[in-house]
Design goal:
The chain has 399 residues and is α+β, with helices and mostly antiparallel strands. The chain has nine helices and 20 strands. Strands 2-3-7-6-5-8 form a six-stranded antiparallel β-barrel. It has a five-stranded mixed sheet with strand order 16-17-18-20-19. α2 (93-117) packs across α3 and α6 runs parallel beside α7. The mean pLDDT is 93.
């Protein structure tokens, strides 16, 4: 059985070992060592990566994945190694320390949520970008802010992480978190003042090495909430990127960095005012076009610069102007980019089947209700006009 060095020292990144076996696997060559510091995927924590260097040579193989199978730690590598080969294992330290920061930060947050409000951690995922924690009970925004502040206060105290393997008798007197009933030897990880949890993963030596805990979001999830967070170097990168974005917004709006929210609010108010004025002007223009089409049963219109909503309103204005128009097709766009369309009818037949034929002929897509459809086509204006000249000459209903 492989000796699990990572359980003894999570900061061990270089070790000596012998190859016990090597077989061809699905993703490479599966190698078992007599001892390893590579952490296998489990408990929500991803596996370590790195390399195995053949002792006395320059040869090495990459460790691509590490998994626990039937009690053994299996290293999936890009090349095979013969049984009995002496190797030096080297862990990708940047990846390992990042994972330890995230995992340890998750312990602190989950432990505090448990001690403060009785929340159980019912789900944990350590992703490539963020960590997600699923808590069994809902939290409000005030509790969310308190959880982040309290977690960081624990980090600032920088108390040593305690890792123990108590006897069965000792374990009976320890109040620890665990998602399931455990048997045999139980490994307890404690962040004093924050968490006491059964865990086989790797962790920082003291809370201060987590660096920083930043809670990113909280949303309802089943009976509780799902929280996204980042810790340590990920938190620093996130805050740096956020500050860079805010600096750009600050420059564009000529606002101080801490006043960008108010500046954006004013901009949105101005935008709503302008949208209202634009809609009023469009509606006046649509009424004018509707009057010009008065008396026509079938209408085809082209109008520049309209949104899908503008096309819909133009089509409605024409159809309901004098009660005589029973079919209206409105297009907006240009050659060669293509055109958006809105088409309506008031004769009671179903447009949906016909618009499929239109889309096929004009290289478009779209659909809608029996009396109204919207979409876009990649045809030129001349192609659209030619199609509708044929349609109108043959009679629109039932197309």
């Amino acid at each position: 059985m492989t000796l699990k060095l990572y359980e003894q020292d999570s900061f061990l990144i270089k070790f000596e070992a012998k190859v016990l076996s090597c077989v061809k696997g699905k993703k490479g060559f599966d190698i078992v060592l007599n001892q390893t510091a590579f952490y296998p995927e489990g408990g929500g924590q991803p596996y370590d990566t790195g390399r195995l260097e053949i002792s006395g040579t320059q040869d090495k193989v990459k460790v691509l994945e590490v998994h626990s199978r039937d009690g053994e730690v299996v290293h999936t590598c890009n090349h095979p190694l013969e049984a009995g080969t002496s190797v030096t294992g080297i862990i990708d330290w940047d990846r390992r320390f990042d994972l330890m920061q995230q995992h340890s930060g998750e312990h602190i947050v989950s432990g505090l949520a448990h001690s403060l409000w009785g929340c159980e951690n019912v789900g944990f995922h350590l992703g490539a970008e963020v960590v997600t924690i699923d808590l069994s009970l809902p939290l409000n925004e005030e509790q969310f802010a308190m959880l982040e502040e309290t977690a960081n206060r624990c980090v600032w105290l920088d108390l040593p992480t305690e890792i123990t393997c108590p006897t069965a008798q000792e374990l009976e007197h320890i109040h620890y978190r665990s998602k399931k009933e455990l048997t045999g030897q139980v490994r307890i990880v404690t962040f004093p003042g924050a968490d006491c949890c059964a865990c086989c993963g790797t962790h920082v030596k003291s809370a201060g090495q987590v660096g920083l805990v930043k809670l990113l979001s909280m949303q309802r999830f089943r009976e509780g909430v799902r929280i996204e967070l980042v810790c340590g170097s990920r938190a620093m990168r996130y805050l740096s990127q956020t500050m860079e974005q805010n600096t750009q917004v600050s420059r564009l709006l000529s606002a101080k960095p801490l006043e960008t929210g108010a500046a954006v609010g004013r901009l949105l108010e101005e935008n709503e005012t302008l949208k209202g004025r634009l809609m009023a002007l469009e509606n006046a223009r649509f009424a004018q076009l509707a009057r010009q089409c008065a008396g026509q049963m079938n209408v085809l219109l082209f109008e520049d610069g309209l949104s899908p909503d503008g096309l819909r309103r133009l089509c409605g204005a024409v159809l309901h102007s004098d009660g005589k128009c029973s079919f209206c097709a409105c297009f907006s766009g240009d050659d060669p980019s293509g055109y958006k369309y809105a088409i309506g009818q008031t004769d009671g037949w179903d447009l949906r089947g016909w618009v499929k034929s239109l889309n096929q002929t004009l290289r478009g897509r779209g659909g809608g209700k029996p009396d109204f459809v919207q979409g876009s086509v990649q045809a030129s204006r001349s192609e659209i006009e030619a199609l509708f000249q044929t349609v109108f000459s043959e009679g629109v209903h039932p197309l």
